[in-house]
Amino acid sequence: MKQIKALFGVIVLALATCLMFAGCSISSVPAGSVEDAEIDYGKSEIYSRKDMDAAIEIIKAEFSTWKGCTLKKIYYVSDDECNERNINWLNEIEAANDNKEVFTQCIMFESDFYTAEQGDLSGFENGKEYKNWQWWLGRSETGDWKLMTWGY
After folding, report:
1. For residue range 122-145, what is the model confidence (pLDDT) as tens digits?
2. Kind of pairing between the strands at 129-139 and 69-76
3. Which residues, in sequence order, are bridge partners of residue 108?
4. What is the pTM of this model?
């Protein structure tokens, strides 16, 4: 049994060495990184920090699925975005997706992130910094945020 483990270890080491010399690594394009992201709550007369944290956790969960992307900063922009027009827009998206939730609130954050220099990056350009990427969430009377759309 010890011989098999030792042989397995030698094979793994040899494979890692080959990949290193080929310019690769075993996990050259990791899942999205959110751990070190700066959070800026801005100023809100509408939402508490707890409200914002709940929305931010949903955004981070989505972002963490983006291969090779690193979240630098996420920030609340303004209460001005939390208006009837944008609530109606999110309700239209919800209805178009055959979902039944009716939003009474919305919140928008922006983020800055960058991508790895190489690899298959969830549809983004390699080695690029993205700024002011928007995240729109709606909330119904149940009090749970739902991520509806993101992008520019």
Report:
1. 688 999 999 999 999 999 998 899
2. unpaired
3. 136
4. 0.78
